[in-house]
Structures are given as structure tokens and as C-alpha cells.
Amino acid sequence: MAMDYGRAAHHDARRPHRVPAVLRAPLEGRTWRETLYHLLSLPIAVAAFSFAVTMTASGIGLAITFVGVPVLAVGLLGVRALGAVERARARGLLGLEISEPEPVRARNGKRGVMAWTGALLKSGVSWRHMLYAVLHLPWAVTAFTVSLVMWSVGWLLFLYPAYQWMYPEWWGQPGMQLGDTANGTGIYVDNPFEMALTCAVGLLVVLAAPWVIRGMSYVDRLLVTGLLGPSRLAERVWELEEDRGVVVDTAAADLRRIERDLHDGAQARLVALAMDLGLAKEKLEEDPEAAARMVDEAHGEVKLALQELRDLARGIHPAILTDRGLGPALSALAARCTVPVRAEVDLPSRPAPAIEGIAYFTVSELLQNVSKHSEAREARVDVWRSADRLMLQVWDDGKGGASTAGGSGLAGLAERLGSVDGLLVVRSPEGGPTTVTAELPWRG
Description:
Order of helices and strands: HHHHHHHHEEHHHHHEHEEHEE
Strand order of the largest sheet: 3-4-5-7-6
Number of strands: 7
Structural class: alpha+beta
Helix content: 55-70%
Distance between the termini: 16 Å
Number of helices: 15
């Protein structure tokens, strides 16, 4: 399972609050936002339930006529609009980040009102919104009642000593009445002990209310996420579409780089070599010594062109990676780095070739960053397997300050890793050291 290193680091860096959470909770903004959410849920749920049941019943009842279909479609369209309101309300008051569900799309590219109406009636998202409108009412009644009763009773009991004087002054009784005092089964809360006990009970209710409300809010989050959000299949499709775009862009950029390297490097040398050999051929009979010198220079150009082609081939996919695996390939990569690098690879077997290649070029790019930007004196590369994940970690003792923000090279690397369900986490405080951890699926 992938670990959220950034979140873990943030959690570790948080300082403990001086006031215990149980005492802070009744006054926190989160508590009152969730309370407001529950109080608003009841009128909204009543309206949504009435609309959903009326439109569904009318649509089904009129199904034998042509009118029933558009009535049912209008009902589904209405609950989808309600879903947009509920998602916005959950986002603002519950802090729930939820994506919009997939829009209504007619199959086979058909257009027109009938095609769109058919797609709306066949949409699982629409019917999940209808189900939410029906199921939300009983839960909204429960959450509204519990929230209102706990806060009202809790604060009234807790603050009782502050307004107890009003009972004899305004209502002609010694204190708050509990039970039926006419037949002797009730009492008046009017002495210091009883008032203190009432205040203590009220305080317990006030302290418990935020946690009860938070527990109920989790149910609301489940309802909104499960019924008003996109399906898991749709989310996965969108994610794969985004990843495909990243892969296509990366492949196009690599092809442009290869074309540029060939054009500016080996191709230019080979053109110059062909011209030199042509001149040498012309001078072969007139000036054999000059022709021999030109052939010798051309021989040197051939060597340089071959070296550039070998470097280009290594940049596309190094032969040592194919023949010997990730360990020797990363050792060779570390040996070419301008900073002393110690590479340790502990893998029980070789992953899939595609994952192996991505791991190699990830380490290659990270070591290039170490050489160019870190001002480090030493670096370390560790590779190991953890469950079904291939783990890579590059550490250096440089100046730090690396980040995936602002369109940096690390941001592009994170996108490329994300396209294969990978993860990149950077921990690089100012002054260093820098630790970059990458995860890739194993796919052996």
C-alpha cells in the first residue's frame, strides 16, 4: 500500500495543543459548521423527499402515456440539481472534497432531446441521486433532532445557575421543575447542590455533543460520497484518461529530444564527415599527404559520432539494464555522477521491463538534479521491494529546497510516475538534506 510520506511528515511536525481536544471541541469552527449542516439538512431533505417521491410516483403512474417519461426525466434532472447543491454544502460545511459525477451523455454520439432523455433515464448516477433524496430524509430528521436537543439541553443545564433567579422572580416557582411536583414525584432544582449537579450534567452534555455530531457527520459524508459522487469505475476511467495524456505528452517530448539530439549531434557530424571524405577523395591524386590527413581527421569524427550514438542509445534504453538488471545499471549510473554516490539495490527478482525502465530513468533524473542543483558532497540511492511496490529513494546532503511545485522538473517526474500508479514524495527542508522517495507498482 502506498504511504503518504508528506502527510506523515506534516503530522509529526505539528505541535501538541495546550488545551485538550475535549475542551476545545465545543468552541471549534468545525463543530458549529457541522451543526449548521445538520440543522439545514432537515428542510432541504423534506423538500427533496417530497419532490422525488411526487415526480417518481407521477412518472410511474403516467408511464402508460407519453407524459410519464418526461415527468420522470424532469424528476431525475431535479434530483441531480439537488445533488449539486448538496455537494457544495458538504464541501463548504463538512470540508468534503468530492468530484462531480459523470455528465449525462447519449450513447453512440446521438443528439436531440429524446436521446438525452433516454441517457438520463439509463444513467446510474441519476438514480443514485434519487435514492439519496429518499434515504436522506430519515437520517436528516435524526441528525437534526439529536443536534438540536444536545446543544439546547446541554447549554440550558450548564448555564442554569446563571438564570435560576428568573424562576422565582418571573414565574413564581423556586427553580426548574423536574417531574410532577403536584403528586410528590417531582422536584424543584433550587438548592446549591442540585444546581451544581445540573450544571455538571449540562457540561458533560456540551462536551459530548461535538463528538456525537462529528460521528453523525461521517454518516453524511458516506451518503454524499457514495450516492452523489462519481462511481469508482468513472473515477478510474478519468484517471486513466489523464494518465494516458501524460504518457502521450512524455513520449512526444522524448521523440522530440531524440530527434534534436540526432539532428544537432550525430547527424551533423556524419554530414561533415561525408563532406570531408569527398574533399579527401578529390585530393587523393593531387596531394596524397593532405588526403591522408583529412581521412585521419574523418576517422576521429567517426569515433565521436559513434560515441554520441552510444550515449543516445543509452539515454533511450541502456543495454546494461536489459542484460543485467537494475542493480548493475544503477551502479553504472552512480559511477558517472559528478557527486560520489553509493547505490544499494535489494530486490528478490526483476520487475517488469517497463517498470524497470521507469525506475532507471527516475533515478537518472534525480541524480542529474543532485549534480546540477544540490551542491551536495555525497548521495545515496536505495532500491528495495515492499509488498507489491518497488521503492526508490535518493538522498543527498546538499542545500535542500527542492520542491514539486511551480512546474519544476520534479513536478514533471511526479506526473510521469503518476501515469503508472506511482508516487513521488519530496522532503527537502532549506539547508538539507534532501530525500526523494518514489513508489512504483511491482508488476513482475
